[in-house]
Amino acid sequence: MKELTSSQVRQMFLDFFKSKGHDIEPSASLVPVDDPSLLWINSGVATMKKYFDGTVVPTNPRMTSAQKSIRTNDIENVGKTARHLTFFEMLGNFSVGDYFKKEAISWAWELLTSPEWFGFDPKDLYITVYPKDHDAYELWQSVGVKKEHLYKDEDNFWDIGGGPSGPDTEVFFDRGQEFNNVAEDDPQNYPGGENERYLEIWNIVFSELNHLPDGTYVEQPHKNIDTGMGLERVVSVFQHAHTNYETDLFLPIIHEIEKFTSYKYGSDQKVDSSFKIIADHIRTLSFAISDGAEPSNSGRGYVLRRLLRRAVLNGQKLGIEHTFLADLTPTVAQIMKSYYPDLTTNLTRIKEVVNREEAKFAGTLNDGLKLLNSVISSPKVQENKMISGQDAFKLFDTYGFPVELTQEYAAESGINIDLDGYQKEMTQQKERARKARGVKVSMGTQNLDLLNYKKESKYLGYTQLDVTNCSLNLLLQNDQKVESVNDGEAMAIFDQTPFYAEMGGQVGDTGWIYDQSGQLVANVNDTKHAPNGQNLHYLEVFGQLKVGEEYHLKVDAVRNERIKRNHTATHLVDEALRDVLGSGSHQAGSLVAPDYLRFDFTSDEKLTDDQILQVEKIVNEKIFANLPVTAQEMPYQQAIDSGAVALFSEKYGDVVRVVKAGDYSTQLCGGDHVSNTSEIGMFKITESTGIGSGVRRIVALTGDGLYDYLLNEENQIKSVMKEVGVVKLSEAAEKTANLKNEFKAAQKELAELKEKHANDAAKNLFKNVKESGRFAYTAGIIPNLDPKEMREIADRWRNQKISDILVIGSNKNGKSSLLLAFAKDKASDEVNAKTVIGSFAEIFGGRGGGNQLMAVAGGKETSLIQDAVDQAAKIIADLK
Question: 497 - beta bridge partners?
């Protein structure tokens, strides 16, 4: 067998399918674009959905890719098994309505067995097929696969619950009997069974069915091919590795980890697990951060935070007590540099984010350990010898403690964990996360009529918003092609239209459709692009529409004018940001709506107030300069040579439209614009936020939208002026400062009164010393104290050596608090504030914690705090 590096395997796969007429698609960002159904790009086909469901027709129906992917549904298994990874690369070849089973199977066998390519020995390869897929079964035999190497398996059917689906066929590599971990007569001892001998290396999906919402399956108009070969798995075969981790994709990282610890990889199964977890997680973190994601408390950021903390905790298992993860990122970049040079380009930022997050976790980890120790020592846990699933999940969710780590710590004290309760909490969290991502289906179904409709629809909206004699060429209702519609929702394509279809950040036009007699027959609620590029009108019909008839199409001109103002303003903003931030800043996205504009741009730093003012000043200067806005079509290269700005995320044709605002801004753009910058009126930024690593967003207003905003601001200012009692705005600052000073003085006076009240109450309390058992104690209620004020009283009690034990109860703002303090010479390891506070807390339904000398419990049962204090004598008497 050949011995290939991971880079060679990846490139050989892509080169093979390129030789078969496929376009090599670049690996898309791990952060999904316009797809709320996905948290991460998790497969090669995830980036092809728009082609598979017929939303867009690809330039070339044959595509291949090496797609970086993240899957985090079973993070707990990473490090425990040979194959589980959170980050991986999926090699794939795709056909959208072009070749099908015959070519897919023939080419797969050629790539796998030809000496020119992978060169596997056919005797080492086994195939599984769907039992009813007779074509695939016979095609595999026709290319040379022996019957004894073919297995039928009911699991060979690919279905994500809606949209394209169909039977699949899987390729397995026989690693040899020495890898077998099941008995010869075990029912799982076959390719596709749960065993280590037969390794799945390729899955080929024959996407020939549509899974409809009602649960039925129908033939798909355009049959597709979707394949997935895990790079890490196939590389493990070429490099004779027992697991994915003994390959050139992981071993350099593992060897780097060894430098920070006295352990060596391969010495112990538990130790190896920690090495694997760290190596996998730092790959995921490096790629995700490079693509703009950052650790946070929600969404994909929460996933990254969890992975980083899991890696840190496993570093501690290896005896690594210092921050070390960022030191591994250059090794990740070095391994992947041949295909992912952006890791090297973004390395500084990756290291900064990882360092910052790891340092932050150090403090959180200490807090988590304190909470864990508090939970373990609580009377309830000590009595039941069980940590609740809720507490175990809190340790995981808030502090990043994997449940197995909590188990290890608890086991040292003879404590178990309610794992069923923990799993219940975990399931509920996953359900919350799923709902937060929305309920949109992950892939739609194809519409054959739209896919096959190729007739041109001419856009006239650059110069006309009111066009008569527009012929209705295609009409659909309920996803079916029809000849006429009298009411309800429908979609329509005309031979010409003034309605702009959503593209390049600009929303689609709305408006009205009239028949030739002038009768209003439909509202246009939105306009988008059909799969082959025509402007597709989304209609609410209440008159008759008939294919072949001509209609009068009229765009909502007021709304369109607002959109134009905001679109031209985005061009001015783009240029102004470069003026302020430098040439390194470029557009990363936009939304041009009638009521506001949103502009995303690259910047590692937050915009300062001064920079915001500078951008506003520049844009408004260009508006007031009455710059003419012109558009001209020209060859792409000529446009670029002339200095036109192009978006890296867009694909442009040979001829492009260049929009200029005087000599200030020149950009490639197919959208609508005003004819002169003065039409924008005025510009103001209303919001500036960060949306990811290195990407910022501003929201701004123009025209009448800005007027409404300023009018609202003025009304709020007038309301504030009325409240503070001034007539002129110029007097408001001074009056507000005076009120602030008066408020501070009142706060100070109140604090002094509260302190006097507390001191007087403490003096009275300190006079009331009683005996119970072997202790002298002081107990009582002091109203309206918070825990901080109670601790101050306890400090005075201890300094004055009033008694052995202090008990203070208080109610404030609907909450109860109880403080328990021990004199220094009266607290022991068995009897102290920390161990006794629970006895008081149970009486008023509270929870508490602290140290041996002082502990505080809090709760909401305000009526029972007196009962808790009254029980002091009994509780203290029982202390041995």
Answer: 459
The structural domains of the chain, with segments of one domain joined by +, span 6-244, 250-362, 378-437, 448-554, 560-711, 758-877
- The tokens for 590 are 């936009």
Q: Which residues are annotated as a binding site?
A: 567, 571, 669, 673
Q: Name the binding residues for Zn(2+).
A: 567, 571, 669, 673
CB 673, CB 603: distance < 8 Å:
no
Q: Which two tokens stand for residue 445?
A: 């179904």
Token pair belonging to 286: 């490096």
Q: What is the mean pLDDT of residues 734-762?
A: 86
CATH top-level class for 448-554? mainly beta
Q: How far is CA 582 from the centre of its chain?
A: 29
CATH class as words, domain 6-244: alpha beta
- How far apart, in whole angstroms, are the C-alpha atoms of residue 193 and residue 186? 10
Give 299-340 pLDDT, tens digit per residue: 788 889 889 988 998 898 898 888 999 999 999 999 999 999
Q: How far apart are CA 143 and CA 137, in angstroms?
A: 11
Question: Helices marked H in 495-628 — which ranges?
Answer: 557-581, 609-624
Other Cβ atoms less than 10 A from the Cβ of 323: the count is: 17
Choices 3.30.980.10, 1.10.287.1080, 3.30.70.100, 3.60.15.10: CATH for 560-711:
3.30.980.10
CA distance 1 to 239: 9
Integer Cα distance of 541 and 555 in angstroms: 16
Nearest to 289 by CA among 317, 339, 325: 325
Q: Which CATH fold would you assign to the domain 758-877?
A: Diaminopimelate Epimerase; Chain A, domain 1 (3.10.310)
CA–CA gap between residue 56 and residue 489 (Å, rounded): 22
Q: Is 324 helix (H, G, I), strand (E, B) or coil?
A: coil
Same fold, 448-554 and 758-877: no
Helix (H, G, I), strand (E, B) or coil at 220: strand
pLDDT tens-digit map of 434-485: 554 443 334 555 677 888 888 999 999 999 999 999 999 999 998 889 999 9
